Amino acid sequence: MGAPETQQALDASAIEDALKLCKREISNKNDAITELLLDCVVELSPKMPIYALLIGLINVEEPHWCGDLIDTAASMLASSLSSPQPADHDRARLLLRLLCCLSAANVLQSSGCMALLEAMVASSNAAMTSDAPHRHLWQPWSDWMVYCVVAALPWAGSELSAACPSEMARLSEAIDAYLEKRPVSFSQELKPFRAEIKEGDIAMRNDSGGASYLSGLWAAVKECATVGWHVESIPQLLNEEQTGSQYSSRLAMGQTHAVPHVPVPESPSGLPSADPAEPHPLQVAAAVQQAYPPHGGIRLLEPQHTDGGRPAIDRFVAEDYIIDTLAAFDADRTQCVKRLVSSLMLPYNYTNLLSEVLFGQMLALPRPRLPSMAYCTVIVDLCRVMCPCIEVNRAWSLASPVVTCPEVETDRARQPYR
């Protein structure tokens, strides 16, 4: 769906064609359509607002089916929140974003979405003040919970703020309170380099997407809120220039559903068992770090090469698009490269940013999400099809001291590439 070949706004004819197809499958009692749409939402995250719009249009004529889809999504979200697997955590983050997008499309009650977001932040705040053993080692989990909430706001912040202003203000205060009380604001152990190679070296001043990532993202979201929640990289569901005014009036005719109850975990999943003796703090720290690894990566290029003077939130959104695409299509290199080139829905030249994110992910500590060979093969294929002005050489010059380290290469060579 959409117009990936031009990276432009929504294609109205494609939406109408998809709507007709979905309505036909629903009338034929094809239950697979629900699973298909939810898979598209998770695997094609740059187009999530488009799929939320499609679900909203279906809701006008098929509210019962849409209610079943919401129940399924909420059940999947609850299961993913309580899972110790990082892949399920990606699914939980994207499903939470879907629920927020559906509130913007008049499918879900905004108050219910805000209540869920507040509950997740409240659980993280409670974890930082509880008297549970080793709770100070839970920060990767609590950071991830708050990150899921903060990362969902740019997609529906305008609609949620308009519908629930007091709840949004309360949520902002809770996030600020969490950032103040968490014990670590910068992960020193995840610094990729020990010394600067020049004054103001940006690679030296980051922690591989560790604790500082959440602070930077929240600052970018607050800045975004001050300019009316406009994000160039996100298709606006109700923006007349992108979707046409007819969608706003059609979505308003649909039934608004209550948000199903989603149990919010009070502690991280996958902790070592307390029997027969209480686990060692190092075991707890390792288990939490493995289940909830840092999301961002290493920044290697100066902002003028990657950000183009755009607001900070655009950088975080584009980075999410790239990382999500790598995770969804890591088993199909050809499809992964095609989507990185043409399906990210970014209305600007992002070749330098793509280069930095790929190298930053490959070198991220404590370990990359994918085998190093996966990143290398994608980089090689991208160099063949993208503009030759890509800043690979600059990123590689910073990355090479780590990549050529024999100990690192020996360890990573043992990891198979799917």
TrEMBL record:
Domain MIF4G as annotated: residue spans: 14-183
SUPFAM superfamilies named in the record: ARM repeat
UniProt-listed InterPro entries: ARM-type_fold, CBP80, MIF4G-like_typ-3
Stretch list, region Disordered: 259-278
Designated name of the protein: Armadillo-type protein
Organism: Dunaliella salina
